[in-house]
Each structure stands twice: as structure tokens, then as C-alpha cells.
Amino acid sequence: MTQPPLAQPPCGRCPKTYERPGPPSTSSLFLLSPGVATYTDKLFKFRNNHWEDILSDEVNVARGVASLFAGRSVACVDRTGSGRYSIYIANYAYGNVGPDALIEMDPEASDLSRGILALRDVAAEAGVSKYTGGRGVSVGPILSSSASDIFCDNENGPNFLFHNRGDGTFVDAAASVGVDDPHQHGRGVALADFNRDGKVDIVYGNWNGPHRFYLQMSAHGKVRFRDIASPKFSMPSPVRTVIAADFDNDQELEIFFNNFAHRSSSANRLFRVIRREHGDPLIEELNPGDALEPEGRGTGGVVTDFDGDGMLDLILSHGESMAQPLSVFRGNQGFSNNWLRVVPRTRFGAFARGAKVVLYTKKSGAHLRIIDGGSGYLCEMEPVAHFGLGESGPQGMGWGEHAVSCCQDSGS
Ligand SMILES: [Ca+2]
Ligand SMILES: [Ca+2]
Ligand SMILES: [Ca+2]
Ligand SMILES: [Ca+2]
């Protein structure tokens, strides 16, 4: 995604949360209909002083863009790098009913001065109209250097890795790069650069199947992902959300599995991924403390800095087959570590979903984050690049292809 560079921060100490100024964004909210439903998907726009479903506008009903199919996940995709989002919808198809969809604004048929926003499904022309048991979706420059690619971990069929050709159309590279995993049933998924080599890696959970930790490699110009999951990490579980974040700000990413106590207890799990100079990262299991929740029917989870103290917090939702309250967890380690939070925005002022943010430190080199585009699976993370810095300070900061200097110092 091509974006203007971040504004220079004020001199002196780095701001803790670093936000690029821009016009206020107009947000929309997309809701999926579960199963083959009696009601359609909803796309709410704040219009006429309240939220209105624009999928039920006459113009969009006539265009048949509202789906009755069983949606599982949605994500925003800036497929052309214009700053305008399409919404990718991972549907759960039945045979040849209910392909994945890619909904976006049709500028020629829209009249924004009257609040009329005509939508169209461009999945077929973009090359992503496929039938599958859609589950998790994540968006970011996985194979591309800055354009948004789309990874989908599917059920009862191969996964998709839609590589952006650079013109907003995609080609499925999942099988050729080794992430198709055709016999497993994907759920939560997260993108991160675990070994800090600048290449985006993919981690996801399979429902009662081996969880995957795909490190992106390249040899002779060919990309190939290699599963480095340890036996403990890959151990099957009824997994829902998968989150990759640095909870203790020590620079090493943690991976959290939110398990659904399906027919018996199923504790959540937490791993720390420790980068090594020569060799694959070490995967160390941690005790998630109260977030173990062995009887928790975890359906979703998000990471955000709930209380603004620079330490990431974990919010878990539960339910489906039994009412359970939300849980909010705070970490209890790493309070003295430094951190930096970056909130990139598009030229229109919206959160820059799918953008890549790279931070360089003197001691530990490049750290890469991807702004969440929407679902891993049924969830959406905060649109913030959160960097734990340990005892280091940031040296410079890059966003996409636009490197900008930052400052030498940081707060704690
Ligand atoms: Ca699969
Ligand atoms: Ca990597
Ligand atoms: Ca950590
Ligand atoms: Ca916090």
C-alpha cells in the first residue's frame, strides 16, 4: 500500500503512542450472517445521525451483493493501494453455493453527496471467487513487498494464499509455497516476522489438528514456507483465536492459543518465540496464569492496550454453547521494558489496515508488524503496531517503502 510517510515526531523523547495526523475517518461495521440464514450480511454506515445498513439500500439489493451464505470472517483489503478498502468475506460454501466474496464501492454508481454508496462484488474479476469452508483470514504484504495479499486457512480443503499481482488481482500461491494444508481445518491465524528476517511468517491453529508455524524461506528466488512447530506447539486442540503479540515488551513475540472447552476441558496456551542468530527460533511454552481458563468456552480474543499503560492486554470472549462472561487479562511481567506504539493511517484518515510497519533498533535490528486487516478468525485486533523494545530504544522507523527517521531515545 502506498502511503504518505509518517509525520516527524516532536523532538526529544519519542511519543509512546505515535499516530499519524490525518482527517477523521468514517468507520463502517460489517456483520456476517451465520449459517445459511434468513437474514443477510449487514454493512453499517453512520448516516443520517445513526447507523444504517447500506447492504439493504435499494441500489445494493438490486445488485444482489448482500449474502445469505454462512460467513465466518471478514477483512479489509486495499487491493490496489489506493487507500480504498474492499471487504473480503470468507463464506462457508455448500458445494457450489456461497463462494468467497470481495465487496467494494462502485464509484460510478455511487452518489456520496446523497449518501448513496453502491457496492459490487469483484471476487471473480480479482481472482478470489472460490468455494471452500472459509474460516480464518489475514491480510498483509505476505509475499508482496507492500501490496496486500490474503491468506485464508480453510476447512475441508486447501488454504488460499492470494498473492497480489500488483494490480489488485490475485493468484493463489498456497500450494506452490507450501501452506495449502489441504487435510486440516484452519481457525485463528496471525501474521508476524518471528525470526526478524524481514519476511512475513504465518502461524495458525487447526481445529483438533496440528497447529502450524510457517516460517517464510526463500531459496534460488523461490519462496517456500517451512513448518517449525515443535511437538508441544503443534499439539491438536479445539482452537479458536490465535494471537501473536509481545505481551511483556521484551522484543520476543508470544503466541496465544484461545481454546474452546468443547467436550472436555481445554486450557489455553501461551508460547514465547525466541529469535536465534543462527537457526530457527526457539519455541518456549509459558504459563498463561489466569488466562489458562481450562473450562473457558473461548470463542474469540483480541489484544489491545486496554488501559493505555503500554502493556498489551488480552480480552477473551466465550459462549456459543454456554453463557460465560468476557475476561480481561493484564500481564504481570516486563513493566520496566520500553515500548512504542504506531498507529498508521491512510491518506483518507482511516486505519491503515494491512500496512507493514518496520522499526529498527541499534541492538536488535528490524522489527516488523502488520496492521490487522480484520479477522484472524471471528475477531479483529487493534489497528496498532505495538513494539516491545526491551531495554533498547528505537533508532528509526519505516512504514512500507517510506523510511522515516525517528529519535534515539524512548520512554520506559
Ligand atoms: Ca485447510
Ligand atoms: Ca520471518
Ligand atoms: Ca515477549
Ligand atoms: Ca495495558
Automatic annotation (TrEMBL):
<feature type="domain" description="ASPIC/UnbV">
    <location>
        <begin position="352"/>
        <end position="392"/>
    </location>
</feature>
<feature type="region of interest" description="Disordered">
    <location>
        <begin position="1"/>
        <end position="26"/>
    </location>
</feature>
<keyword id="KW-0732">Signal</keyword>
<dbReference type="InterPro" id="IPR027039">
    <property type="entry name" value="Crtac1"/>
</dbReference>
<dbReference type="InterPro" id="IPR013517">
    <property type="entry name" value="FG-GAP"/>
</dbReference>
<dbReference type="InterPro" id="IPR011519">
    <property type="entry name" value="UnbV_ASPIC"/>
</dbReference>
<dbReference type="Pfam" id="PF07593">
    <property type="entry name" value="UnbV_ASPIC"/>
</dbReference>
<dbReference type="Pfam" id="PF13517">
    <property type="entry name" value="FG-GAP_3"/>
</dbReference>
<protein>
    <recommendedName>
        <fullName>ASPIC/UnbV domain-containing protein</fullName>
    </recommendedName>
</protein>
<dbReference type="InterPro" id="IPR028994">
    <property type="entry name" value="Integrin_alpha_N"/>
</dbReference>
<dbReference type="GO" id="GO:0007413">
    <property type="term" value="P:axonal fasciculation"/>
</dbReference>
